């Protein structure tokens, strides 16, 4: 099965969910045009409070639709864009790609994976109990973050549902994703 973009979203206001769109435009070094999280420096409110000069490693949020399918099977109604992601994919285990992986979205856009999204309590405010469903625990009892990945935009371009997604791995040795 090939990897595909199944949904795109943006929102100019800091809200939990984003608005599904027919297309989004990615801007190199910034993120999604018109999105509240676009910028060279951090835009997530908690990160701005900690240090507003930090580089924005969270310009684009991606979630794999297989996670939405999994939580739906547990009784949670969650659609693309509901968890605040800009791009919803199908056919790739986003959580398994190494840091530095480049994702080619559509004809022109390229993003570089920076790390894992850190799910927050807002997920439970959206759907009570959903936070536990998007967190896992590994064999050592450590939390496993499963609420998507974050990336920076390397090459801008328009991205639409139905666009192909191509994966280019970085040179080895590969570095596992961590929270950003």
Automatic annotation (TrEMBL):
Any coiled-coil regions, as ranges: none
SUPFAM superfamilies assigned to the protein according to its UniProt record, in alphabetical order: PK beta-barrel domain-like (SSF50800)
Occurrences of domain MOSC (ranges): 19-168
Protein name as annotated: MOSC domain-containing protein
Lineage: Bacteria, Thermotogati, Deinococcota, Deinococci, Deinococcales
GO molecular function: catalytic activity; molybdenum ion binding; pyridoxal phosphate binding
InterPro entries, per the entry: MoCF_Sase_C (IPR005302), MOSC_domain (IPR052716), Pyrv_Knase-like_insert_dom_sf (IPR011037)
């Amino acid at each position: 099965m090939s990897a595909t973009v199944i949904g795109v979203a943006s929102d100019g206001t800091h809200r939990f969910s984003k608005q599904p769109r027919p297309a989004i435009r990615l801007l190199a070094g910034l993120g999604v045009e018109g999105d509240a999280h676009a910028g060279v420096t951090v835009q997530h409110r908690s990160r701005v409070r900690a240090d507003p000069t930090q580089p924005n490693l969270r310009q684009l949020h991606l979630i794999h639709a297989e996670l939405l399918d999994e939580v739906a099977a547990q009784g949670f109604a969650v659609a693309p864009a509901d968890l605040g992601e800009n791009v919803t994919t199908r056919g790739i285990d986003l959580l398994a790609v190494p840091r530095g992986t480049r994702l080619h979205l559509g004809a022109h856009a390229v993003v570089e994976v920076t790390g894992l999204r850190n799910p927050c309590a807002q997920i439970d405010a959206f759907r009570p109990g959903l936070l536990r469903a998007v967190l896992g625990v590994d064999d050592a009892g450590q939390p496993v973050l499963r609420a998507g990945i974050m990336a920076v935009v390397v090459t801008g371009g328009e991205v639409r549902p139905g666009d192909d997604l191509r994966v280019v791995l970085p040179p080895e040795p590969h570095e596992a994703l961590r929270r950003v």
